[in-house]
């Protein structure tokens, strides 16, 4: 239910004054457990990106889960996490951040369109080297080693995508996945070129823009937040900014569509806040109208009453330069929904029916008539 709300979000990242109206509505949170400064420092060492999704496993596991999961499910979750720590050496409750990044590329000299690159970076209280060794032992021959920028990293080929890439070269960049320990407690996994970019960023080259990082980390008590610039991604992919070998100065610098979204919680409820940059009030009203129609359509297609209730609570407000989105759902409502979904389904009772045995059809017995022989006189 919360995930459905989270999927409908957006907010401007380029102008702090534009974001203030959405950000101010997210300040009424739990007793603030802000992200430690060492985590912020780690995030500044991420490579450049066009979209970033930030997740706080520590808050989700240690704070949010206890509010919404039934006691039995919570106990089973903690038992599973304990087992995972024994086998892998990672306690999910001690993970500071999980960041998912997407980066679009400029076309090459042949003007070939390239798929975006993906990467996940995980940092926290664990040994990255131990986790790397676990991956090597588990994958064995499937993981080959390489080096870049003074770092050893592993590469695994995905056979299914590799075969498809022979016919469709566009998929080649997705046919391999690389994994590297960026430092003692940070590990990155993603497309090979993006993992190499993460190694460069750790050394100080090609780091994430402060504007994008400030946007996604605007509320440092968020369970989940996201920010991105879809127009910039489009401009890069379709050569509006030139090619890899021939950069081009953009003719316009629109921030239309730049977005921010966050899911937070306070003592009694979960809160969703987000916005999308609309540039001017007329565009804001048009976007608001389109989003309202999409929500009405989604509500009419859904048979889930809880989802319909959440969608009905989503408030969309156009302003001079952006469209704000906000919704609030009580912790109890989320807990009730999860309990309802995880409860064992009752099997419908089958009432035995008595059937009469069909009457056997017997074939008539035809008796042969015996003919008497008359004696001749």
The sequence of SSEs as H and E is HHHEHHEEHEEHEEHHEHEEHHEEH
The largest β sheet comes out as: 12 strands, antiparallel
**In total, how many domains does the architecture comprise?**
1
Helix content: 25-40%
What Rg is obtained from the alpha carbons, in whole angstroms?
30 Å
Q: What structural class do helix, strand and pairing data support?
A: alpha+beta
Q: What is the number of helical segments per DSSP (H or I, 4+ residues)?
A: 13
Low-confidence stretches: 1-32
Strand content: 15-25%
- Shape field: globular
Give the strand line-up of the largest sheet: 4-5-6-7-3-2-1-8-9-10-12-11
Number of E-state strands: 12
Distance between the termini: 109 Å
| Integer average pLDDT | 81
Give your account of this protein's structure.
This protein is α+β, with helices and mostly antiparallel strands and 377 residues long. It has 13 helices and 12 strands. It has a 12-stranded antiparallel beta sheet, with helices on both faces. The longest helix has 21 residues, at 281-301. The termini are far apart. Residues 1-32 have low confidence and may be disordered.
Give the topology.
Layout: H1 2-6, H2 16-24, H3 37-43, E1 51-55, H4 57-68, H5 71-88, E2 95-103, E3 117-124, H6 128-139, E4 143-148, E5 151-157, H7 159-167, E6 176-183, E7 186-190, H8 192-202, H9 210-216, E8 224-228, H10 230-237, E9 259-265, E10 269-277, H11 281-301, H12 305-313, E11 315-318, E12 322-330, H13 331-342
Antiparallel strand pairs: 1-2, 1-8, 2-3, 3-7, 4-5, 5-6, 6-7, 8-9, 9-10, 10-12, 11-12
